[in-house]
Every structure is written in structure tokens, then in C-alpha cells.
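User: Hi! I'm working on a homework problem where we have to compare a predicted structure to a textbook description. Could you give me the structure for the chain below?
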Amino acid sequence: EAHIDTVGEPTLYSRLIELVQGLKDIREVKVVSVQTHGQNLSEHKVEELSEAGLDRINLSVDAIDEKLAKYIQGAEWYNVRKVLRIAEYTLENTKIDIHIAPVYLPGINDEEIPKIIKWALKIGAGKKWPPLGIQKYIPHKHGRKAPVKKVMSWYEFWNYLKSLERRFKVKLIPRLEDFGMFKTKPLPKPFRVGEKVRVKIVAPGWLKGEKLAVDLRDLRTITVVNAEELPEGTRASVRIVRNKDNIYVAIPT
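Assistant: Happy to help. Predicted C-alpha cells:
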């Protein structure tokens, strides 16, 4: 599976249709999915995505109540009614499946989670995959901070999901096989920590001062930090400072 996600909103990418088509052309890719809050979707857009080969939309809907939905999104322009309508249209008129993925914010959207579950089951979400994937709120140093009084432990969260499973008779605790996932050997690491590598700077990075680079053998993407002076399109020498899980971070030499 190729899952399209980002720290921003993936559907803002102007070449999303082309990306989906390109991923589907890769022999080893059986499923293409995308994460979205849904605000930028339209009937025409989901039809285009379906024709391009998109298999599933992981839709972040954190509240059915319009006022609370705007508050959680931090945007007055957010229209949850439109998002719900497009989700229903997608299931009724395209081959795309919908996986509803709200974030549970204790003390904020407690009353909304049951509403979301009922809505997801009503519209027929989960034609091939589980209809719902309720997410645990985990604060991140670079993310938005929700005014949650107490962050749940994983034990508390799993018990919360179990209580909802009993109440609504739907599976909410995911298993690897639900999404065709399985454990396997990690890919080999072509670069060691401390190794110097020649790269081409190809794009801005996520955070200020970061650039995305590709080594000259096209083996891996490398995030280069402290790279303000490295223009896109240029080549540079960098030193690898992190390679855990085949995620590479480097600094200019």
C-alpha cells in the first residue's frame, strides 16, 4: 500500500491525480490511499481520484456538531456538513472506500465520537477496510496543542475503544491484517551514521532551515538540516547524523 499523507493537507497538492496514477502504475503497489480532512474534496475531485485508481480515503472527522468541528479544526471556514456530504457521495458513486478516522480529545469531543460511529455505519463506510479508526491524541512538539486536561494512557485508550465496541457492535481496535500489513525484515541501510554523501537538493523541507535531498544514486531521500544556504537544484556534500528506520537526516559538511 502507498499511503499519501503529510503534516499539511495532502489534497492541496496540485499533482495529486498524477501522483495516484503514478503509484498505481508501480507493479508492487496494490492499494493507494490518502489522508485528508476532506474540506478540499468535491464530487468532481473524488470522481477524478477514483478514475486515477485511489482505493481508500482516510477521512479525519472529529465532530459532527458544526460549531465544535470549527473549533477543533481551528478554522471558521471549515464546513463539516460539506465533508459529510462528500463522504456519502464518494461511497455511493465511486469505487473509493472511506475509513473514518477521528481523533478522540477527552473532555472536548466525548459526545461526538458516538455520533461519528453511528454516521459511519449508516453511510456504509468500510466496504473493504474497517469503517473506523479512532485515534489517540498524542501531543507533538511541532503540532497543535489541544486543551486536553489529561492525556490518556494507552491502557485507558484501549479500554475506551473496547467499551465502544461493545456498545455499537463494531470493531474499533485494528489488527495488522485489517490493512494487509505484516512484519518483515527491514530494508538495508545504504548509509551509515557519520558517512559523507553527495546529494542533490530537490525541495524545501518541513521545518525552517530544512531541505529535502536525494543521493546521487537515487537510493534514499535525505532531510538536510541547517541547509538555509543550499539552493534547490544544487549539489552538496552532507554527513548522515540519523538513519534509524531508514529515515535519513544529515547536515552540510
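For your comparison, note the following. The chain is about 25% helix and 20% strand. The two ends are 36 Å apart (CA to CA). Good luck with the assignment!
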